[in-house]
Amino acid sequence: MALTTIRDLLAEAFPGGRVDVEDRTGGGDHFQVTVVSDAFNGLSLIQQHTLVNAALAGPLADGTIHELRIRTKGTA
Amino acid sequence: MSTLQDQIKQVIDTEPVVVFMKGTPDAPACGNSMRALQALWQAGAPITGVDVLPDPRIRQELSALSEWPTIPQVFVKGELIGGADITEELLASGELREKIDQALGDEHPQTVRTLVLAPD
Fold first, then answer.
1. Which of B6, B13, B48, B74 has its CA 20 to 30 A from that of B100?
2. Which ipTM score applies to this complex?
3. Chain B residue numbers touching A74 (CB-CB < 8 A)
């Protein structure tokens, strides 16, 4: 299922981080992801979101994710 | 005849604030495009909207150029700001207005227009 895949990809990309994935509509393709990780420390918002987009490049490209909302936070 | 990628590049480079979106500013076709527009409007930005829906190649070429996978995409003076989430966060923190005032001067007019790309 898409939600599990997304959570696993993010957990793998941000080891030690806090990852939360929510299916916003229940339809399995609109997601809100929240990631808190020290990987974001010192990065601009756009750099932080770029890391999340890169981690989810697969499901973004193949249409598994139709809509993605991202919230990121460093630990510093 | 310029390629579609040239056209997109030119729009990004010449429009003060441009949103590549689903639908137009008059008729947004997606909640996130709407959120980005509203945040920009509240920050006092002039807005140029480009609809990516008429031709799938617009979105493909845009993402190839910007390396940003999702729509909407907001550019201020040629610089990618981000999608709806970042635009809203920057509005809330006051950075969006700051960035726009810095890029366009304090006395810029606030207009909204739609620009149509013409893929051949």
1. B6
2. 0.90
3. none
